[in-house]
Amino acid sequence: MKQSTTNVNSSLSTQLKLFSSKFPKIPKNLFLLLITLLLLILFTDKNSAFSIRDVLVARGGKRTASGGGEELVQCPTWHPFQCPNSECIPIKYLCDGSPDCSDEYDENSAMCTAAIRPPVEETVAFLKALLQAHGKDFLEKLFGEEARNSLAGMGGVDKVAVALSQSPTLEAFGVEMKMSPTELGRMASVLQAIASSDENSGFTPNEAADFRFFVQKLQETGFF
């Protein structure tokens, strides 16, 4: 091994002397720069070169480490959204009408709807605050009998909050929550009345005022 290293150094020294003799008039600083570049070319491991594709794509969400194990792939800051198949894309490409993930997840209807609605956690807190302030059967006025006892018949507050967040339309919400056409029609009328400050909403003025901001958010994002 030592003999091999000596041979490499001797060969390199010979090449440098030959290079220097052929270009004697090159300024010293430039000559040193050229020597540095030559050394980089000779000794740089070509397999370690940076590749954007290596960063953006990894099969199965894993990258094999040099030790034979696996490590999770983390998307870079300039392509921070990770598709289910581990591709990484810019945030700006989400929900722009043009699929960029190979499985088109970046245009998923539920995800894109949730992106423009109040966060689920805030909706959960809001619904719980209404129930705390007005009683556990309060939301029956909006959703119907299944909403009694803190939305127990609809699967609970969390389930309703998720459905409100990701359902593009009132009709889609009705399907997800298994509401009857009658319940859905009544809900549409109540929402419209609250949004327009109609006194026939079925809520008292104070109750309607508590609800109005959230209802307007639903209206602005195409829910009804």
TrEMBL record:
InterPro entries: IDLSRF-like_peptide, LDL_receptor-like_sf, LDrepeatLR_classA_rpt. Pfam families: Ldl_recept_a. The keyword Cell inner membrane does not apply. Coiled coil: none annotated. Disulfide bonds join C83-C101. This is Uncharacterized protein. Keywords: Disulfide bond. Signal peptide: none annotated. The keyword Nuclease does not apply. PROSITE patterns: LDLRA_2. It comes from Meloidogyne enterolobii (Root-knot nematode worm).
